[in-house]
Amino acid sequence: MLLGGRTADLLGRRQVFLVALGVFALASLLGGLVDSGPLLIASRFIKGLSAAFTAPAGLSIITTTFPEGPLRNRALSIYTTCAATGFSMGLVLSGLLTEASWRLTMLLPAPIAVAALVAGLRLIPRSERDRSHRGYDVPGAIIGTASMLLLVLTVVEAPEVGWTTARTLLSFLAVAVLLTVFVVVERRSPSPLIRLGVLRSGSQIRAQLGAMTFFGSYVGFQFLVTLYMQSLLGWSALHTALAFLPAGALVALSATRMGAIVDRFGTPRLLVTGFALMVVGYALFLRVDLDPVYAAVILPSMLLIGAACALVFPSLNIQATNGVDDHEQGMVSGLLNTSVQVGGAVFLAIVTAVVAANSSGGSSPQAVLDSYRPGLVVVTAVALVGLVVTATGLRTRRPPRSTVLVASSEDPAVENGAASNGRSEGELPDGGRLEKERVAVRD
Questions:
Q1: Which of 95, 299, 336, 418 fits as disulfide partner to 238, beta carbons 3.0 to 4.6 Å?
Q2: Quick one: 265 and 205 in the same domain?
Q3: How far is residue 306's CA from residue 309's CA, in Å, rounded to a whole number?
Q4: Is residue 226 domain-shared with residue 122, that is, in the same domain?
C-alpha cells in the first residue's frame, strides 16, 4: 500500500486506480473459476496487490478533488458510508452465497469492479503524472512488507514454539533490523515511500496509531465473535452475518451527516468519543454465555461498536489527510491504509496467540468460551490504548494572536480594518497600500 500510494502520486491517481481496478476484476474472475488450490491463492494474492493500489489511489482522488474543509469532510463522510455499506453487504451476501457455492463469493466482486471501472472512466477527473520524480522505492516496499510479514508470522507461531525460545527472539530481532533498514532506505531514497518528516506532526501520528488500534481491535473482535457464533452457538454463516449487520447499518445511516459533525466538534473529540464507545461495547460483550439473548446481550455491543465506527472511521481519514499537500496525498493515504491493515494483522495475531495460550482447559463448549474471554480482554485493551492515544489530541490551544507594532498607510481605512488582513507592503482591498513593520506573536 505504501508503494501503491506513492505510485498514485507519481503516475497519476486516476490512471493507477483504473488499471488496478481492471486487474482486480480479472483476478476475481480467475479466483472463481480455478480448480487448483495454488491458483486460488495466486488469484487472492493478485487481488490483494491490486487493492493495495486502488485503496490509497481512491482516497487520494477524493482528497485532491475536494478542498480541505467542509466540502472534503462531507465527501469523506460519503466515502465512509460506501465503505460501511460494502462491508456490511459483503458480510450478508457472502453468508448467503456460501450456502449455494463458495465460488460465487469469489466471482461477485468481478462485475462490481467492472461497473466501478466504467463509472471511473467517465467520472474521475484526469490527474497529471509527476514527471520530475526519480524512480520508485521498490527496495523500501520489499523491506517494509517483509518486516510486517515476519512480525505477524512470529506472533502467530510464538505460542506454539514458545515466546522465550531462540527462534522467537531471533525473529523479533530480525523484525527490528528490517525496520531499521527500512528507515535508512527511506531517508536515502530520492523518491521515498514515506517522507519521514510527515510523522513529525502529532495529529498525523495520532491518526496512524488510531487506525492501527481501531481496525486491529475490530478485526480481533470480529474473528472471535464469528467463532463464538458459528462454532459454539451453531449459527449459520448468514445468521452470523445478520448479527453483525446492525453495526454496519448504523454507520451507513449516520455517516452522511458526519461531515457537519466534524466541522462543529473537530476530529480529536470525535475520535475520543468513538474509542470510548468502542471500549464499552467490547467490555459489554464479555457477558456472553452459551445461551445468549441477542437483543439483551449481543445487540447493545453491536450498536455501540457501530456508533464508534461512524465517529472514528471518517475522523481518521480527515485527520490524516488534512494539512497535506496534494502531491503527497497518495503517500499519506497509503500510509493510513497500511496502518489499518498492519494493525488488523498484528493485533489479530496477538488475539489468536492469547486464545491459543488459554485453550488447554478442555474441548467442552464452556472451556472453549473461557479461552475466548482473554482474547476479548485483549481486544478491549487495544481499543483502550487507542482511546489514550487519541485523547492526547484534546489539549486545548489558544488561537493565534497578532500584535501590530507599527502601522501607517496612505488611506485612513487601513487602520480600521484592512491592516488586520496581515498584508505587508502589498495591495489592500480598498486600493490603499500598507507600509509597516509587523511582528506576529503566536501562542
A1: 95
A2: yes
A3: 5
A4: yes
Domain shared by 331 and 428, yes or no: no
According to DSSP H, which parts of 325-364 are helical?
329-357
Residues 411 and 362 in one domain: no
Indicate whether 362 belongs to any domain: yes
Q: Where are the alpha helices (H) located in 101-201, listed in sequence order?
A: 102-107, 109-123, 138-161, 166-188
Q: What is the number of structural domains in the chain?
A: 2
- How many of the other CB atoms lie within 10 Å of CB of 237? 19
In which domain, by residue range, is 313 found?
Answer: 2-128+191-394
Tell me how crowded residue 138 is: count the other CB atoms within 10 A of its CB: 11
CB 346 within 8 A of CB 155: yes
Whether residues 199 and 253 share a domain: the answer is yes
Report whether 92 contacts 245 (CB < 8 A). Answer: yes
**Grid-cell match 513593520, residue found:** 437
Alpha-carbon span 189 to 331, nearest angstrom: 14
pLDDT in tens, the chain (443 residues): 888 888 888 888 899 999 999 999 999 999 999 989 999 999 999 999 999 999 899 988 998 899 888 999 888 888 887 887 787 778 778 877 887 888 998 898 999 999 999 999 999 988 766 666 666 778 888 898 899 889 888 988 887 888 889 999 999 999 999 999 999 998 888 878 888 888 888 899 999 999 999 999 999 999 999 999 999 999 988 888 889 889 888 888 886 788 888 889 999 999 999 999 999 999 999 999 999 999 999 999 999 999 999 899 889 999 998 888 888 888 888 889 889 988 998 899 899 889 988 887 678 889 999 999 999 999 999 999 999 999 998 875 544 444 444 444 444 444 444 434 443 333 333 333 333 333 333 33
Amino acid present at 400: P
- What the block records as the C-alpha cell of 158 is 510464538
